[in-house]
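Quarterly update, task 2.4: D-glutamic acid-bound model.
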Amino acid sequence: MCPIGVFDSGVGGLSVLRALLQELPHEQFVYVADSGYAPYGERNDDFVLQRSHAIADWLIAQHHIKALVVACNTATAAAIRVLRTTCPELPIIGIEPALKPAAHVSKTGVIGVMATRGTLNSEKFRNLLESLHGRATFVLQPCDGLADAIERADAIETEALCAQYTRAMGQFGSKDGEMDTLVLGCTHYPFSAKVLADQIGPNIPLLEGGLPVARQTRRLLAEQHALLEEMTTNQPLLFYTTGHPDALKEAVQRWLHLETDVASVQMNQ
Ligand code: DGL
């Protein structure tokens, strides 16, 4: 009967929650947006680790979660190993940029990757790249400020940064040497998918990581016989933020098409 905890530096994890709701329609979810401390992507690992710990501890103590989804590429890269060590009983599911699926679908073998600086500089990401050595060429683009612009729902800044970064990456298209696939390696970026498609063309697949995360969550819960087969609560979704509740409320309305209450919460390091 316990809920699944989901967190991100802010509203980005809603792109993962969207997939979780599709895949696990009977579960209860508690979503935490750490918007008071966002963005994570240009912060150091210690900061992201401390925030991840504070949120995981709070979700365990206040909501007795049965699983934790780290719906943030940056936090997964910086913190998931330590979280798993400190909470060995709790299934913890992380997210990584969809490089493997991209290598699968790309025909030109040239793949663009947009992600935060923190993700791209992490050891976890280096290992992922290494594991695909020789399978494709990845054009890596750190996107400073983009998650923050999406977090603030600043459409003008979002469009300008997307244009700046996609231009810096090079040519998209289906000819030899062109990028024919774009990996959205930050959970905020799917919310700029329309802008990106307008800029690079509608035929370039934009790969996000929410669905594989949702499937993995389902698998882990099934293994533990902890999957709900029917709805057992009339409050399937609880939302908390360390930032301004209205910002999360509006993002939930906009991206999940749900009317909801959002509670403010303080989680000091
Ligand atoms: N949404 C996060 C990610 O997937 C981080 C964005 C940020 O806070 O910089 O990387």
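Highlight for this quarter: The mean pLDDT is 96.
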